[in-house]
Amino acid sequence: MLTIFGTIALDTTRTPFHTVERTLGGTATFASISASNYVPTSLLGIVGHDFPAAYLELLKNRLDIRGLTISQTEKTFHYDSSFGYDLAKRTTNKTELNVIANYQSTIPDDYVDSEYVYLANNDPVQNMNILKLFSAPKLVICDTMDFWIVNKRDDVIKMIKKVDGIMLNETEAKLLFKENNILKCARLLASNGPAFAVINKGENGSLLFHNDEFFPIPAYPTEIIKDPTGAGDSFGGALMGYLSQQEKWDLKTLKNAMIHGNIMGSFAIEDYGVEKLANVNSEDIQKRNQKYKEILTF
Ligand code: AMP
Predict the structure, then answer these.
(1) 4 near 114, Cβ under 8 Å?
(2) What does the pLDDT average to over 118-137?
(3) Predicted confidence band at 104 (pLDDT cuts at 50, 70, 90)?
(4) pLDDT digits (tens, 9 = 90+) for 166-195
């Protein structure tokens, strides 16, 4: 069983071309929708009384949401960000933690023996508290971002020491270690405990570090980019979903998981919020997987 913990958000995303307000987002949302293309996925997290019924329905239709708490007193986590014309660099305008701030870790009994746990970007202390509630997960992967690296760096490092794999983007990896070389960042990540580290470089692809070796992988070439929000989470969800489906994480499987991460990330950016991601089917995934084989063979 795969369980994913993280934020379920209402996002306001501003680009020079379009703005979407209070649309469905959040790290656990993107990651679990993405992962559900590979294995049945359970969502763990909290939303507020303002969470739209239509979004709840969308989640319910593809995920096990017994671990989703709905607060009757507080509002849903809200994230407001803007992108410039290159749609690459994001500026955070507002982070309203709301329900996240006082979340009390709890998991349904049926989730306790989850073999696969993905700790999507969230408060590292809450991530560690949630992790303690699982009996003996075989594989735990975590993600994090600038907000937590800046505000709770020591806890981020403590969290990294408790996982088997870590996934984060290039800027965050550099910020975490105050280091500008991503190969060094990958090495530093792994030296803190995880068996493998994945660094995402957006349109420049991604890097896997495993057993003292580096494996760079190009991004899927997509000509449509509307909203990069959630690309990293969709990547992480697919990576974890694929590893859970395969039930192994040797080098070959990890490389294939990276390909699937890139594929789902490429879908996520093609429309606003989860619009595209939630409408992808196995045939779409297969087609991009085949394309990757052509790209990587010469
Ligand atoms: P990314 O994959 O990095 O683009 O993640 C985007 C998602 O992260 C958005 O849908 C936000 O709701 C969510 N998010 C933004 N800030 C935070 C934060 N500090 N903690 C957890 N989730 C966040």
Answers:
(1) no
(2) 96
(3) confident
(4) 999 999 999 999 999 999 999 999 999 999
- Which atom of ligand 1 is found nearest the CA of 25? 10
Residue 153: CB atoms within 10 A of its CB come to 14
Q: How many residues does the chain have?
A: 298
- The SS3 assignment for 137 reads coil
105 pLDDT more than 90: no
Contacts of 6 (CB under 8 A, 6+ apart): 26, 27, 28, 29, 31, 45, 118, 119, 120, 121, 122, 143, 233
* Phi, psi (rounded to 5 degrees) for 2: -105, 125
Q: Could you tell me the pTM of the whole model?
A: 0.96
Query: 295 C-alpha to center of ligand 1: Å?
Result: 31
Which residue's alpha carbon is at the smallest distance from atom 14 of ligand 1?
26
Measured from the Cα of 230, ligand 1's closest atom is 2
pLDDT value at 36 more than 90: yes
Question: From CA 147, how far away is CA 151, in angstroms rounded?
Answer: 6
Cα 174 to Cα 19, 127, 193, 209: the distances in Å are: 29, 22, 18, 15
Regarding the beta carbon of 121 and ligand 1, being less than 6 Å apart is answered yes
CB 193 within 8 A of CB 162: yes
**Distance (Å, whole) CA 93 – CA 247:** 40
- Cβ of 27 less than 6 Å from ligand 1: yes
pLDDT band at 264 (very low <50, low <70, confident <90, very high): very high
Q: What is the DSSP letter of 76?
A: P
